Amino acid sequence: MAHSFSNPIKKIVWSSFDYTSGPILNLSLEYFFESGGCDQSFHESSASSSSPLEVLSTQEQFEDIDDIFNSQLITVDPCGSPQDTAECSFSTLSEKDLHSPVPDLNLMSKEMVESAVDSGIATNHSVHSELSQALSNSGHNFPEELTPSFSEMRAELSNIIENCPHGSPPSQSPIRATSASSSKSNHSISMPMNSQNELLFSMSGEIGLPLMSDEEYVAKHALAEQISGNFISCDPIIHKLTVIPTRALAFGSYIFWPDPASHDMTIHAFSILLNDLDEIWYTEHRRLFDHFMDDLITVFKSRFNSGEPVELLNDFLDEEFKKLISMVSSLKTWIFGTREFKPEDNLLLIDLPSDYVHFLHRAIAGVIMSRGHTYVFGGTDYNEIRRMMLTLSLFLDETTIRLCLNPYSTPINPYLCLQVVNEKEFQEMRSTIVSCRWPACIVDMKHKKVYFSGPYWEHEKRRETYSSENSNHSESLKNLHQKLKLSVVNSLPSQYSSLLSSVRSFPGSLQNVISHFHLLMRNEARTFIELVKVLSEPSKESKTNPYSSRFRLSEINHILRMNTNEEFGIVLSNAEFLLPSISDFISENAQLPG
User: Fold this and answer.
1) Whole-model pTM above 0.90?
2) What is the DSSP letter of 43?
3) In whole angstroms, how far apart are CA 534 and each of 178, 531, 549, 561, 569?
4) Are 368 and 412 in contact (CB under 8 A)?
5) Domain boundary among 500, 530, 551
6) What local confidence, expressed as pLDDT, does residue 200 receive?
7) Whether residues 296 and 428 fall in one domain
8) Are 293 and 237 contacting, i.e. CB atoms less than 8 angstroms apart?
9) In which domain, by residue range, is 267 found?
10) How distant, in Å, are the alpha carbons of 9, 49, 70, 153, 207 from that of 199?
11) Is 336 domain-assigned?
12) Boundary-marking domain end, from 196, 211, 226
């Protein structure tokens, strides 16, 4: 299968580690894109090529992470002109590579201490420390019988160090590479002798061996804490982002134990491999990856612990990661004023009938309450549906707006925002709404109605039931779908609707009105958070009471004069953005209405 997706994910790796077999590369899914210039890559720094999807299971040629003479973690000062070293991760050591110049050894020696920082490894000890100490001791004589060429190599290495320029001290390399030159200039410092590379390779025992591929490198280093003997808790899931500038590689690893209650110490990781310059993009979209991996690992644990064959697990992961690639490929950030989001696409600037304006305001309330988990359903006019979707995107926060997508570009899912659903996907939409991590909203374009699956605590109970049924491969999900309760969104609170009513009279003020709209929501959310903190603070005489932090949610609603579900839903969604997990705290400690 060939994929021509436009996204920065290069590979996805499933690796594991136990103390018997060490690091194991279980599965590697590799994605290449059609080459057609820089515009084909997600970022200008992303490499492009053409190759089918490959499933690999090799676990050979693992690199010694403590090899200071052949470490891929060593960063060098990016002097000289940068060279493009992007190539296939399965490349081997060529004759040109063997004779290419190497970095200044003084720079290497000073920056070796940063190699562990770059990889996320802080506690490994070099097995070459005694050898390094011996080499640095000029008074030590090595027996000739150790190796016929050992003394010659020592003398040549000493000559290299003595001939290194000392005019200016080397600059300290950064922990994170911030420019393309710093990640692509592995061999930018010239040295006089072609044999120096061979010397370093021969001393490390790596001469003549092919270089380690990215997936093999990640399989060994993603779980490096276990190699060094440090215990890490993997329930819940641990996320670790690692950046290796010298490999032009970044990978985010989701580390977990399949069964923490058992005596099996095997630990697993799913790692997403990207170009190192796409680290910021990955961080901006962490919400998508966190939620997807959390759901995937829950199902994977159940299948793995039930003894499912590895071949079936590989097929399962292949299908699931294809869904992830499809979602990432469909991401689209809508920016008002661009060619793709013109003023005539904004329903706020169009003269509409009063009943349609009321419908639009209710849809705006729904998209805010659902934090973007909104499904535009029904309708036959594509332009109307597209305008509704673009207009609603103006009211998403800066994190959620990155999870929008083109209409009909991917199957319906619980991870992306503002999805357009056709009538044939009605049952899939109901199932997706139940599995969303936040209450969802349905904008019915045909009947001009807006529905909401909240409040949060009721939606969360249904989601936990659904997750349990789904992880156990239950066939009785139809009953759960029938129990899905949707409330009708009746209005947008007056303070917001009156603010939007002025936009059509002054179209040039749209940006200021939208900014003030968001500021008003944030201020109300901050007040809400402070009230929750004050009312949940136990008194001095009741701190030993396990229920001392309980408070009445109705009291907060009364103080803030929130009389409708829409007012409370808008405030709670913005409070969750400012202080994640505050909704869980309320559901656990507050006396809820009803």
Assistant:
1) no
2) S
3) 43, 5, 10, 17, 20
4) no
5) 500
6) 43
7) no
8) yes
9) 1-62+213-330
10) 36, 34, 11, 7, 9
11) no
12) 211
